[in-house]
Write the structure tokens for this entry.
Amino acid sequence: MDAVVSLAGVTKAFGRIRAVAGVTLSIAEGEFVTLLGPSGCGKTTTLRLISGFETADAGDIFIAGRRVNDVPPYRRDVNTVFQSYALFPHLSVAENVGYGLSVKGVARAAIRGKVAEFLARVGLTDKAKAMPRQLSGGQMQRVALARALINEPKVLLLDEPLSALDAKLRQSMQIELKHMQRNLGIAFIYVTHDQEEAMVLSDRIAVMNEGRIVQLGTPEDIFERPGDVFVAAFVGDNNFVPGTVARIDGSTVEIVDFGGTVWKAPLTRPVAVGRPVVLALRPQAISLDAGSDSNGRGHRVAATFRETIYVGTTVRITVALPGGHLVEVQGAPAGFRIDYRALRPGDPVAVGYPTEAALVFDRP
Amino acid sequence: MRGLLARRSLARLPLHASVGLIVVFMYVPMVMLVLFSFNGSKLLLFPLADLSWKWYAVLFADHELQRSIWNSVIVIVAVVPMTLAVGVPLAFALDRYRIPGAAFIEQLTLVPLIVPGLITGLAILIVVKRMGIPLSLWTVVLGHSVGWLPVVVSQVHARLRRFDRRLEEASLDLGANPWQTFRRVTYPSIRNAILGSSLLVMTLSLNEVAITFFLTGKDNTMPMHIWSMLRHGITPEINAIASLSILISAAAVVIALRALRSNEE
Ligand SMILES: Nc1ncnc2c1ncn2[C@@H]1O[C@H](COP(=O)(O)OP(=O)(O)OP(=O)(O)O)[C@@H](O)[C@H]1O
Ligand SMILES: [Mg+2]
């Protein structure tokens, strides 16, 4: 498959701020790629470099094989769905959607047909004559989407398109977006700082930090095999236990934390004894036993109970390690092998986990 | 509830009274003037003894007056495009470019609005004389354009400041070139500011005496002519022409304010 968009070592600075610091990324035809990262990491700037509203200081940008560094936005075969929607307030919904075709000089009758088709796609046929200010947030979002998609761009850029919507609407729009993207076969480059949204939507996720892509991979790659502590912390919840490599035993590494607790993890990368590391363990991977129970599964370490937070579908339990370090355990209320309601602060418990669930990173 | 409401409206009485007084002081003289323009007799007596259109007939037979009205029209037709041609690009420049001291430049463009017309007229007269340019309607046009440029700049700039520039990006993104973007997105949102300030410039120019006084040659504009007619006393003819000019100005101002208000939304 050919790349519809590719960036090679693209850099963009604003004064002394390096907003994008050497991004290399290639997006295949029909692919859904998400740029995920914290606020200010350069996601929007990356999109604006592709759409042509910013010019790169260094590096090359290609759209459908053509270098577009010096091509103005209106001659680039990409369209954008803006976070603020940016609907033209003086034009009706139908005129907004038909705008791109109209400026290209497409015949009126043809525009009318296409507009009707795309309004139907987003379920807004009855709003054709409405003005943007008469629409709800979700409806404006759909108009913005139809207005961009009607031009059948090679790539659609979406900058946090759902961030202004409430949680329910957001979920249904996510599914709709995904279906539309599949049906039209247009590549999407999607920006969000919501990791769950990124997981739901993407074929591949590019996790960004401080202007760089720190990891690029499928949602499974990113979630199950995070490349560093930053990704492990940003994508999903994680417990981090700093310690030192104490022993290497075949395919297992033993780590001693600052409180003297011994942890086990699979040996996935070469590490040396004495190396300062961080052990990462997802709260969902941990089970909890009474301290006296010796039938626990996997590797077990001793801890004391701190508190329980009940959040309906899950229960979050905080326990303290002998060194004082806190670890969070998460599970379905019925899934605990221990009666967590009976626990009192200070009660001894055992934290157990399958060794394969632990990850080891260099301490940053 | 009722008692409360009644007390409230009672409390507002002084406010209503003062508003009423202001209206009376502002509009009674104008209403009188208009009424007397229909006065058939030469005596300024009230109530009018004899209603008549005859002063309007006299007006339309007065060739000198007609000429002055025509001159005023020429001035307006030149001043409005002049102020737009300079004012609109200036407003854009102030809004779009990081000009060092932009705020200062903007305040500078507002100066003619604050300085009395007498001073503006005199200042331009000095320059024009220096350059050896003969006084004519064109020097009047120059004076009015300088005087009313701030109206256009301030109105259009105020609108541009509230204009969401992301709309322009959306337009470019959808394939419209910069000119199409201006015509289809930017212009429609400053159109009312342009219309409103044009009408204001028009009425201001139509009624201006001070600047014109210094800068006109032998051609008189309408208000100048009325001024000269006053030497023969306040004739019903003057009331008639004044009534007409009130009518035109009021209509223009009402439309202008409407345009500028919708501009604020
Ligand atoms: N036009 C600009 N002028 C100066 N600095 C800018 C400009 N645009 C972006 N920046 C800076 O560049 C950095 C990256 O900004 P960018 O908008 O790309 O971040 P982002 O990842 O989209 O963040 P967010 O999630 O908050 O939208 C930030 O530090 C920002 O302040
Ligand atoms: Mg952003």
